[in-house]
Amino acid sequence: MRYLISVKSGKNWGNSSQYKALRQHFADAIKVLKQSKHSGDIQPTLGICYGCSKTLNNGVYLRIAGQNFWHLLSGDPELYTSIIEPLGFDAQKHDDLFKEQKSSSLNRMTGEFITQFCDPSGAIDWTRLVSSVSGNLSQ
Asked: Is 124 helix (H, G, I), strand (E, B) or coil?
């Protein structure tokens, strides 16, 4: 069996036109693969990374989510839980850097705003602010 897999994060990933495009992409890929002498059985599959929904075959593609999807990919029925710990560690590492950069950006933008749009007492000069974001007659 050869699986053609489109991976989506959650079960509510798209609108009707995106689902229609997915079906068309699967049809196009199957058409190309069937031109090969060694195509074998082809199973178009919508793989959803998380969620607790049943595996369904709508006649066009297999829809598989959560634990079942990770099991299909790895052969390990417990992979969906064992990948969480390293992800959490990496997330914490990146979160610390993000918070530091966010704080720096907030300080920089606040300083720029005060310089450009506040009077010496610190009050917002609303005329200058509104002119900056909406004024266009002089352009």
From this structure: strand
Domain extent, residue 98, equals 84-120
Q: How is residue 43 annotated by DSSP? A: E
**What pLDDT is stored for residue 113 in this prediction?**
97
d(CA 125, CA 116): 9
For the chain (139 residues), the mean pLDDT of every run of 10, in chain order, is 93 94 95 85 94 91 94 91 77 87 97 96 95 81
**Number of neighbours of residue 47 by Cβ within 10 angstroms:** 20
Let me know if residue 127 belongs to a domain: no
Alpha-helical (H) ranges within the chain are: 16-33, 66-74, 79-82, 84-117, 126-134
Number of structural domains the chain divides into: 2
Does the residue 128 lie in any domain?
A: no
